Amino acid sequence: KDYTKLRDEIGQSIRQLGIERDARAASLDPSDLAIGVADAENEMASARIQYQKIMGELEQTERRALEAERKFQSVNQFNDAGFSLQEVGSSAGFRRILGRMPAKKLEAALKMVHALLNDRVIITVVAKKNDTVHLLVVTPTDETSRTLQALLPYDFVQMDMPSLEGSNVEEALNEWTRKKNRLTEEKMALQTQLDALRKTLSEPLNTSIDRINETLLLLRGSLRLGEGSTGVRIFARLEKQPTPAVVNGLQKNGILDLD
After folding, report:
1. 80 assigned to some structural domain
2. Mean pLDDT in runs of 10 for the chain (259 residues)?
3. For residue range 119-173, what is the model confidence (pLDDT) as tens digits?
4. Closest CA to 55 of 184, 180, 197
5. 3-class SS of residue 94
6. Is position 241 within any domain?
7. Domain check: are 100 and 159 in the same one?
8. Number of domains in the chain
9. CA distances from 120 to 50, 141, 157 (A)
10. Could you report the per-residue pLDDT of 13-30, keeping only the tens digit for each?
11. End-to-end CA distance of the chain
């Protein structure tokens, strides 16, 4: 059994879960090493499955929350610009383009678009705000690209057409706010589950590494002692660190072997 590989894999799982490594001395019965390794492998596999499940749900909820925030901001911008719900209704064969541009460039932009498309384009302009005007352009679907190309030289910035749910903009804002709040609660609940998982797995995973380290010490000692030897090797963990003089003396006499 590759104990070193298993120890490293469990260590990787501990780091992945964000669990603090808490190294301690572990009691070890040489007669049940195989059972201990099997337990460690099972604990590691179970930990990974549980972690991946929660993280998958958390990442999915995070993506949904970001999308809800994006749509909320889109509706909010639409509301701030002063447009109404009726102005974004769909019409067959036409495309609505929402955007903003510097107020000082509006007149020239309107002339250019009308010269290009004559009376086939409708542009709604709302009140100026901070030297910026918002536009809602209704253009034939097959002329969408040309319309945008005509507006871009005048610093036109296209905005997302909002996803409006409800009978008016205020209802749409309230609906997206509720969705944002609900997703925030879901994220908090999943984070709580993740914290609980870390707490539950901390002791068994740390203990598994401690037991494997003890096993490696035992195996290395057996290999160094040699088959058929009448010597005895004792493994010990000291509560206090001995002085350098004591360590040197024991090593010089072949009594102490530091791992």
Report:
1. no
2. 73 80 66 61 82 92 91 78 58 77 90 82 73 84 87 88 66 86 94 89 78 70 52 56 71 59
3. 777 777 766 777 888 888 888 888 888 889 989 999 999 887 766 665 577 777 8
4. 197
5. strand
6. no
7. yes
8. 2
9. 59, 11, 21
10. 888 778 888 776 666 555
11. 21
The amino acid at 164: L
State whether 154 and 97 are in the same domain. yes
Same-domain status, 89 and 157: yes
CA dihedral (54, 59, 61, 67) in degrees, to 10, reads 180
Question: What range does the domain containing 95 cover?
Answer: 85-166
Cα–Cα separations (whole angstroms), residue 72 to 59, 129, 161? 20, 20, 11
3-state DSSP: the chain helix, strand, coil percent, rounded to 5? 65, 10, 25
Half-sphere exposure of 181 (CA within 13 A, CB side): 6
CATH number at residue 157: 3.30.70.2750
